[in-house]
Amino acid sequence: MNSDLVQAIWPLLLSIVLPILVMLACRLTVERWWPIAPARKSRKGMNIVSFLIWFSTQIAFAPGTVLLGTLLANRLGGGFIVLPSHGWALVGGFLAYFLLMDLLEFLYHRAQHSIPWLWAVHSLHHSDPEFDATTSVLHHWLSPAIKSFAVTVPLGLVLKVPPIYLAIYSVLGYHAYFYHANLKISFGRFAWLLNAPSYHRLHHSASIEHFNCNYAASLPLFDVLSGTYRPARPGQWPAVGLEDGGHAKDVFDLLFWPVRGRLRGLTRSPTPGVNPGA
Fold first, then answer.
1. Helix (H, G, I), strand (E, B), or coil: what is residue 219?
2. DSSP 3-state assignment of 82?
3. Which of 14, 10, 108, 52 is nearest to 255 (CA)?
4. pLDDT digits (tens, 9 = 90+) for 110-150
5. What is the pLDDT of residues 4-22, one digit of tens each?
């Protein structure tokens, strides 16, 4: 195969084909071996459609994509602290970068649950009434761009990040498919070490008693330090979704989730005998 063609398509394979294969592998293997709940019966394909919409918009607005935001800021002259890119110093530098990124992921996630307009966008992710590996890609298409300009672009203005850091961090990001999986795995007393399905399912719980907990991306340590740490009790696998049961029913909802109600109201035919101004 032509080398130029390989270079052109490998990002596409890594960004679309590989995630779908990973999600399919989870559905066909581990999520069948020890599931929390029966396999998804409704909304089949909706999360993948959401993922494809998300990816398409990131291609259209490439400078705003999450990790590319850091690279773009560096290319434009940002990054007065240069992270090492060779030898053993690279290992230490990447560990520091990973800890910083995970802290920023944690803080941004808390903001998504605290700031109303951010929650309006992020709530699509929490709307899935079933919980499996595909839930990890149920995000509104605006989410990555907002996150870029809130987190990774400012980071790139401060740190000069070698591309290899971004590549490794992207691969480690596949951990999200694990902790969203319909998989009966809990780390018990060691839940503070690494995010797992039992830990993150509690964050997605539809019960108000579980709100405001377990915001961590990879390291629950940040929940421990901030007081939002709540390990699941043995056998605790709560129902997930939004408290009001709302969820995306079609592509219209996926595209216009934050304002879907208002837009549907504008297009809905008035009910006979009802004053539209009432």
1. coil
2. strand
3. 52
4. 999 999 999 999 999 999 998 888 899 899 988 888 888 88
5. 544 444 555 566 677 777 8
pLDDT in tens, 204-232: 999 999 999 999 999 999 999 999 999 99
94: number of Cβ within 10 Å: 20
Between CA 197 and CA 179 the distance in angstroms is 4
How far apart are the C-alpha atoms of 12 and 45, rounded to whole Å? 20
- In whole angstroms, what is the distance from residue 61 CA to residue 145 CA? 8
The total of other beta-carbon atoms located within 10 Å of residue 72's CB is 18
Taking the C-alpha atoms of residue 273 and residue 1, their distance in angstroms, rounded to an integer, is: 67
Structure tokens at 51: 């993922």
Percent of the chain with pLDDT over 90: 43
**Which pTM does this prediction carry?**
0.82
Q: Which two tokens stand for residue 44?
A: 């089949």
Rg (CA), the chain: 20
Of 203, 29, 43, whose CA–CA distance to 138 is shortest?
43
- Give residue 80's identity as a one-letter amino acid code: F
The mean-pLDDT minimum among 37-41, 90-94, 169-173, 174-178 falls in 37-41
Q: How many CB atoms lie within 10 A of CB 120?
A: 15
Tokens (6 digits) for 255: 């595209």
Burial class (CB in 10 A: 0-12, 13-18, 19+), 119: middle
For residues 74 and 152, is the Cβ–Cβ distance under 8 A? no
Q: 201, 235 in Cβ contact below 8 A?
A: no
